[in-house]
Amino acid sequence: MKFRTHVEPPEPMRGLEIPSHVVAELGEGKRARVVITINGHTWRSRVAIMRGRYLLGLSNANRNAAGVVTGDEVEVEVELDPDPPVVVEPADFARALDDEPAARAAYDRLSHSQKRKHVHAIESAKKPETRVRRIGTALASLQDE
């Protein structure tokens, strides 16, 4: 679906207002996962609701890549994102999960955001011993579930 809108200023949120009829036509609820294209630049996001308006976030990186600035009127193409969100497990964490079937089963039941939280904690470790400790902490918390 295509629609025209303006690139909004950074307050309260730099973004693009998406008409409510477009959200309804997407048919996946008010916070649908979508693929957005402006000027040939495409990215994935989710419809946001702020102050009763439907918005698509527009980061500085995406704004620059699409060649738009605040105040521009743009044509936006939006479609449902056909791919479910995927969290890529680091190899060492994946091996540890596979070695503990109960932890693997618990991890596989987690929401996307909870999986991302575990992976981020592990990947943000600066020292190898911290990474190992965080993997152990993740496994322990998963086995308790």
Strand content: 25-35%
What is the average of the pLDDT values? 89
Q: Strands of the biggest beta sheet: in what spatial order?
A: 1-6-3-4-5-2
Number of domains: 2
SSE succession: EEHEEEHEHHHH
* Form type: elongated
CATH architecture of the largest domain: Beta Barrel
Tally of contiguous helical segments: 6
Main beta sheet strand tally, sense and closure? 6 strands, antiparallel
Strand element count: 6
Structural class: alpha+beta
CATH fold topology of the largest domain? Elongation Factor Tu (Ef-tu), domain 3
Could you estimate the helical fraction of the residues in percent? 40-55%
From the N-terminal CA to the C-terminal CA, the straight-line distance is: 42 Å
Alpha-carbon Rg, integer: 19 Å
Low-pLDDT windows of residues: none
Could you explain how this protein is built, in words?
The protein has a six-stranded antiparallel beta sheet. It folds into two domains: 2-80, Elongation Factor Tu (Ef-tu), domain 3 (Beta Barrel); 91-143, no CATH class. The mean pLDDT is 89. It has 145 residues and is α+β, with helices and mostly antiparallel strands. Helix 4 packs across helix 6 and helix 5 (112-123) runs antiparallel to helix 6. 41% of the residues lie in helices and 26% in strands. Strand 4 and strand 5 (53-57) form a beta hairpin. InterPro entries: AF2212/PG0164-like_sf, DUF1905. This is DUF1905 domain-containing protein.
